[in-house]
Amino acid sequence: MKNSELETMRKSFNTVKNRSNTLKDSPSTKRLISRVYEIKKYSIENNEELLNQVFESFKRNGIDFKIVETADDALKIIDDLLVEYECNTIAKSKSNTLGEINLKDHLSNKNIDVVETDLGDRILQLKKTDNKPVHPTGPASHLNVNNITEIVNESLNVSLNPVPKEIMETVRHDVLKRLENANVGISGANAIASEEGSLVMVHNEGNISIVSLKDLHIIVAGIDKIVPTLEDAISIVKLETIFATGNYVTSYMNVISGPSKTADIEKKLLKKMYGAEKVVVILLDNGRSDAVPECLYCIGCGNCVVHCPVYNAVGNEFGFNNYLGGRGVAMSKFIEDDETCYDSGLYMCTLCGLCTLNCPVSIPTNEIIENMRKLSTDVGFYPKAHGTIKYNVSHKDSPY
To answer: pLDDT tens digit string along 253-270?
Structure first.
């Protein structure tokens, strides 16, 4: 990342800190922190049981579903669905899981236009190069208004002034125009309630509503998103919002429990009133079954990277794909392999523990990374300078 981008990112992060600090220490938030920790702990420890329950709930609700082992498996299902719906354009919402499986790169090779509906993600998409997000809920937090104006002007062939409202309106118009003929929407999910078979998604822009109104709504989520009840799911997304944005709740909270339907004519069930005629949920393992359990407690707020000294110094170079900072490094070992984990910044971490101190569910990321370094060394992935020092100590009784 450029120094100017790092500076803008730090300013954005300070804004988040100031907003969230006013809420984090309130009695209600402390109660919510305790509740969500217990929800996540129970859910990860009982994941198989909750999976079986959510399958039955999805069947009851008329939701099609698949559980897949790898990213390639998920992409194959998506490919088949897009062929079935003769899809050329997809409305996409923000999703780290879709970033994990590299959906956009995959579909771009098939000449399918994946249109980001989130403003920050759309700006990065228009940027075309060096467009990795820097925060899970504020992906373009490193770009100032002048940067964004240049990106939009160049990509959309317009001549905007550096005025945020003008930028927003221009991007919105372009997105809606591109989506006029889109019949498929794709999103992630913030949490999944196994008892009710409901998927909870939060957003401020109203864009997930657009995505969910297409003929087919595909939802891709990790198996770690499953919790027992809808009340549990709401608790998780509420805490995520507090730590991610410094607000108690987002503007919109979609709860999807099946395709669009009505029974207002003689109580006869009819599908596709306004929303999707078909909802397909793809539950992704992709290494999660082998992951350190605490890694899966994450609620996706990004508060760890906001406070991480390494991330604030180097930016999204520290992390893996859409999973940023130390937790992303840790997950990369299970999603990919030891080499990817090393390349993602395994030895960048200072082990200071600020991520854990500022994590609403107290993920011990620094301890996980320290243990991973030992395992990484055993299979030959470590800084070569360390290897030289080790050799000198063992053979010369000196590190030099």
So the answer is: 999 999 999 999 999 989
